[in-house]
Design brief:
Blueprint (H helix, E strand, L loop, with lengths): L1 E3 L2 E3 L14 H11 L12 H12 L4 E3 H10 L10 H11 L3 E5 L2 E4 L8 E10 L4 E9 L3 E6 L5 E3 L4 E4 L3 E8 L4 E2 L3 E4 L3 E7 L6 E7 L3 E5 L5 H4 L1 E2 L4 E2 L6 E8 L2 E2 L3 E4 L22 E3 L3 E3 L2 H13 L3 E3 L2 E6 L2 E6 L5 E3 H14 L4 E6 L1 E4 L2 H11 L8 E3 L1
Antiparallel strand pairs: 1-2, 3-5, 4-5, 6-7, 7-10, 8-9, 8-11, 11-12, 11-13, 14-15, 15-18, 16-17, 16-19, 19-20, 19-21, 22-29, 22-30, 23-28, 24-27, 24-29, 25-26, 25-28
Helix pairs in contact: 6-7
Length: 394
């Protein structure tokens, strides 16, 4: 017997023996399924069940308290039986898919919803720290047109390509929908300023050269005080005073401020053979190596990844592309998101399986290593020399 709107319904269950065995519970379950009273698969991926919730429990309302929906299901004799969590699973899934929305106080609103205003999506693909040039991928969401403005006073131009290379410190992008004439709010994007330096000269005439990329006014100190409050303007290579052991510098432009640059000046003015600063990686401290690497062939990509895996490196700003003719697939991460090199290799393998015979390319913005010794071992394998301004250790 099971309940319906008209009372209890009598359902006959015929025993079916298999090898002198009869599973009564399974027979009852099968009978209820055949009568459309019980659905063990009811959930968010079953459109008929979702529609049933809206039609029978919402009764045409646009918004409902979710507890009321569940109460109606519990007290309606004709409601189908299912797993106790099925209703909440549907709610959570439909909200995550933005087909329903939680609007507060336990209320849920169902779509369709009015189209959102256009907005610009801006994604940093890579940044060249040697020039300050950033590569952006931009696109309009809920629109079909993008406008770009360089700085606060620059002219606004319509973009014809969604890949943008720029050395500007500030951009503003605005998306529009030409079909309905709707334009979204301006979306600002801000570049970063990084500082490079070089120490040169011999004892008694140590010199320091600093460069802001892509641009910026530099202030510096040689006594350990803050450049922002007591620094002097940088106008070119300057002489490091005798006894100075720490140079601090910072650059700013258009409201953008660089990170503080710290330069440990050798006490005895020693310099290497090329006139640069004598500097050593601390082998016992974690190290981040911010140097871009670009590999353009499949074999080079896997060789690089194998070298990174041997040193336990995690990679930031990863972009793996598989391309064959007009077919392509890509994994792209921002510079602040790091992924273990083994996982990058797995993703690269999957991309090549997705497009058999494709050529792989790899771009990496930075590498993190557990200690400086691993950095030295990796750079030795890569036949590279890390520069002081590229390495951060804590």
């Amino acid at each position: 017997l099971y309940p319906t709107r008209n009372g209890l319904n009598d359902l006959a269950v015929e025993p079916q023996y298999q090898g002198n065995s009869f599973n009564g519970e399974q027979a009852i379950t099968d009978a209820l399924k055949d009568s459309y009273k019980y659905d063990p698969d009811a959930g968010p991926n079953q459109p008929a069940f979702v529609n049933r919730i809206v039609e029978k429990l919402w009764s045409g309302a646009k918004e409902m308290p979710w507890n009321e929906v569940k109460s109606r299901a519990a007290t309606d004799p004709s409601w189908i039986w299912h797993h106790p969590r099925a209703l909440d699973d549907v709610r959570d899934a439909m909200i995550s898919r933005d087909q329903w929305r939680g609007i507060g106080n336990g209320f849920v609103e169902r779509g369709p919803f009015p189209p959102p205003r256009p907005t610009a999506e801006v994604r940093l693909l890579s940044r060249d720290d040697t020039t300050g040039e950033a590569t952006l991928r931009v696109k309009p969401l809920h629109g079909d047109t993008l406008y770009l403005q360089n700085g606060a006073s620059g002219a606004r131009e319509k973009l014809t390509s969604y890949d943008v290379k720029t050395r500007a410190l500030r951009l503003t992008l605005t998306a529009a929908n030409t079909e309905n004439g709707m334009e979204g709010d301006p979306v600002p994007w801000t570049n970063t300023i990084n500082l490079k330096y070089r120490l040169f000269g011999g004892p008694g005439e140590r010199m320091c050269e600093v460069q802001a990329l892509p641009s910026g006014a530099i202030r510096y100190t040689t006594d350990g005080s803050s450049p922002a409050s007591s620094g002097q303007p940088y106008q070119g290579p300057f002489r490091v005073p005798a006894g100075a052991t720490l140079i601090l510098a910072q650059a700013s432009a258009d409201g953008v401020v660089s990170e503080l640059l710290r330069v440990d000046a050798p006490k005895d003015g020693r310099a290497d053979d090329s006139g640069g600063e004598v500097w050593r990686v601390d082998t016992g401290k974690p190290a981040t190596w911010r140097k871009g690497h670009k590999l353009d062939a499949t074999s080079e990509v896997f060789t690089f990844l194998d070298q990174a895996i041997r040193q336990g490196a995690t990679l930031g700003g990863v972009r793996v592309t598989a391309m064959k003719g007009k077919q392509w697939a890509e994994l792209s991460l921002d510079e602040g998101t790091y992924l273990g090199s083994e996982k990058v290799r797995d993703q690269a393998t999957q991309l090549r399986e997705l497009i058999p015979g494709a050529n792989l390319t790899l771009e990496v913005a930075a590498l993190q290593l557990l200690d400086g010794q691993r950095l030295l071992d990796l750079t030795r394998e890569l036949k590279e020399t890390p520069m002081r301004y590229e390495v951060t250790q804590s």
